[in-house]
């Protein structure tokens, strides 16, 4: 009997993740999730006490992975301003072995759910991640941010990741499309390094 319960729980998580991805957390309906998971709303609440807890179950592993990878990368790069040569080398390494790169943790469709999040107590963690990324871009690429360039660059990267993950079912196609944009953007940033 336990196997059946695990299957129902996993189906609810799968359907909810898909609904949160397509409609956003705020607009996703527990009634629709129940219908698509072939269960009842009451049964969903048997497994997850609230929509918020369902969201947490889906997003927390992704958030924790991003936070871990970012802290590992930022700590390793503290006060290391890049030269043009180092930046070009790093860009090639990321493209060559993307899955093990620092950017690999962002290629998860659950990241889109996080980026679209407008409410929930997880919003604070989303904002902290975005703030840390913006700060890191300023420091790492020595960007004088009077004009908020690092925020603009980060927003462009976020929109690109969202676009390729939504438009491409195949992850390799999404990565290939992302790198077309990534190369253009970072070659522009790298050209500004003194």
- Percent helix, as a range, is over 70%
Oligomer: single chain
- The value of Rg in angstroms is 19 Å
Strand content: under 5%
Poorly predicted residue ranges? none
Provide a quick synopsis of the model.
This protein is mostly helical and 194 residues long. The chain is built from nine helices and no strands.
Structure description:
The protein is an all-alpha fold and 194 residues long. Helix content is 73%, strand content 0%. It contains 9 helices and no strands. It has helices at 2-23, 30-36, 41-47, 51-77, 84-96, 109-116, 123-140, 149-167, 171-191. Helix 4 (51-77) crosses helix 6. The chain is elongated. It starts with a helix and ends with a helix. The relative contact order is 0.11. The mean pLDDT is 84.
Which tags fit this structure?
9 helices; 194 residues; mainly alpha; single chain
How is the topology of this model organized?
Blueprint: H1 2-23, H2 30-36, H3 41-47, H4 51-77, H5 84-96, H6 109-116, H7 123-140, H8 149-167, H9 171-191
Helix pairs in contact: 1-2, 1-4, 4-6, 4-7, 5-9, 6-8, 7-8, 8-9
């Amino acid at each position: 009997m336990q196997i059946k319960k695990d299957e129902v729980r996993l189906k609810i998580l799968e359907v909810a993740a898909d609904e949160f991805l397509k409609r956003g957390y705020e607009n996703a309906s527990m009634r629709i999730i129940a219908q698509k998971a072939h269960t009842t709303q009451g049964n969903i609440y048997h497994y997850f006490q609230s929509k918020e807890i369902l969201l947490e179950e889906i997003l927390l592993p992704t958030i924790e992975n991003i936070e871990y990878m970012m802290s590992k990368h930022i700590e390793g790069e503290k006060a290391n301003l890049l030269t043009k040569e180092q930046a070009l080398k790093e860009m090639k390494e990321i493209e060559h072995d993307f899955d093990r790169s620092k950017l690999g943790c962002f290629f998860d469709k659950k990241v889109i759910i996080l980026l679209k999040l407008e409410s929930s107590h997880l919003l604070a963690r989303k904002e902290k991640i975005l703030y840390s990324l913006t700060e890191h871009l300023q420091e790492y690429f020595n960007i004088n941010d009077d004009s908020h360039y690092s925020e603009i660059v980060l927003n462009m990267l976020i929109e690109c990741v969202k676009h390729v993950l939504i438009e491409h079912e195949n992850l390799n196609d999404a990565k290939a499309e992302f790198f077309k944009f990534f190369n253009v953007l970072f070659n522009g940033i790298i050209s500004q390094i003194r």
